[in-house]
Amino acid sequence: MNRIFRINEKIKPFKKKIFVESDKSLSIRWILFSSLSSKKSVANNLLMSEDVLSAIDCIRKLGSKVKFKGNKCEIIGNGLKYKIKNNLILNAGNSGTLGRLLLGLLVNSEKKIKLIGDKSLSKRDFSRIINPLKKFGAKFSSNMNKLPIYIKGLKNPKPIYFLEKKGSAQCKTSVMFAALKTKGLTIIKAKKSRNHTELMIKNLKIPMSIKKTKKFDYIKIGGVKKVNSLNYMMPGDISSSAFFLVLTILSENSELTLRNININPSRTGVIEILKKMGAYIKITNKKIYKGEKIGDIIVKSSKNLKSINCPTKFNSSAIDEFLVIFLVAAKSKGVSYFKDLSELNQKESPRLNWGSKILSLMGVKNILTNNSIKIFGNPNLKVHKTIHIKGYLKDHRVFMMSVIAGLTFGGNWMINDQDSIKTSFPSFLKILRSINK
Ligand code: S3P
């Protein structure tokens, strides 16, 4: 259903404390690890979004038993070898993470399985995991490395050496999952990316060694006979928080505290970048939970924002947040430059292109190439036009970025496909309403 969200007024000054929804990367990983254990795993505060529900649907089809009480979830999996029915079809919905991680887990499934997804996921590249998973011995047929994809695994997949150079946690994790199903040691040289999988593996006491250098992690991980259960209390998602950080920074006389957020350093590029641009952001109540850093984030309206020549070292740790960061660049003094970002066009929609398009609709001068964008900021930027956002493949982050733009810069906005937020952050608009009272 295409519900159109309309904005014709800026947000009023606010001072609030909020919780955002739980971390999507952690929620999906916990579900997939739990499906590998024959004991009961319990998660409290699991993210209840469409991507996560797609993961639950897939593991149920693979033989796991799942129970919910509100957002408490119990999973009893069926060990390292899934029970696969003939002609099984798994639907990853909108989630690249789910689709790619699942294929890694299916390398030892001897029956042919079909993986499908929605319109956006069906446009995305899977060669990045099909190629390494073929080295394990799995067979694939696909529509030019896109969904629908058929996978036929084998009883004894072979360990591999894998060079991951995109900084993609999805590729790294897919190969790590496959490695668990082999006899022998898989070696991965991976460009830095989010490390939730590694931390869960440590909690599960699965043998693994990691040698860290400045740019790469060298991971050695071997096959296992069983996977333990894992109980988890999900923290809030920094990627969901980012929309509220930028909302506050760009609003007048406002302050927000976001409580209990996962601030794992492999995810906090957004905080580093916004601080470099002159934003007021402080972290309090820091603690460590199962290796993940958690804290409360305090953010305030920030004047005198500065442009940034964004160091590429932040590209992986801020990959899901660039769209809203572009809004801060639009209000900064000077020209901001974001480069080597071709991966941004590989997301739920070609986000680098969409970022540029939305800025242009707002009247913000920008120069786009296939992997970079220059944004000409204006500290006095105000939008007076009517802007209609449509045809963006229902990318949740394009929707949320547009809402934040409308609420902070003004103008009359019509943003199609309100339901897109259900994939990662179903209560996004409800939380906004609670702030804008
Ligand atoms: C994710 C990794 C990132 C990110 C995605 C979630 C994950 O993708 O964009 O939203 O949970 O592993 P890549 O690893 O492909 O960069």
Question: What features would you describe in this structure?
Answer:
By secondary structure, this protein is α+β, with helices and mostly antiparallel strands. It folds into 2 domains: 5-22 and 235-435, Alpha-beta prism (UDP-n-acetylglucosamine1-carboxyvinyl-transferase, Chain); 24-160 and 173-178, Enolpyruvate transferase domain (UDP-n-acetylglucosamine1-carboxyvinyl-transferase, Chain). Helix content is 29%, strand content 26%. It is built from 12 helices and 22 strands. The model has no long low-confidence stretch (mean pLDDT 98). The structure holds shikimate-3-phosphate (S3P). Shikimate-3-phosphate (S3P) binds next to helix 5.
Q: Examine the coordinates and then state which fold CATH places here, giving the name of the CATH topology of the largest domain.
A: UDP-n-acetylglucosamine1-carboxyvinyl-transferase, Chain
**Average of pLDDT:** 98
Radius of gyration, taken over Cα atoms and rounded to an integer in Å: 21 Å
Enumerate the spans where pLDDT stays under 50 for 5 or more consecutive residues: none
Structural domains: how many: 2
Counting DSSP H or I runs of 4 or more residues, the number of helices is 12
Percent range for helical residues? 25-40%
Strand content: 25-35%
Q: What is the molecular shape?
A: globular
The name of the CATH architecture of the largest domain is Alpha-beta prism
Distance between the termini: 28 Å
Strand order of the largest sheet: 2-15-17-16
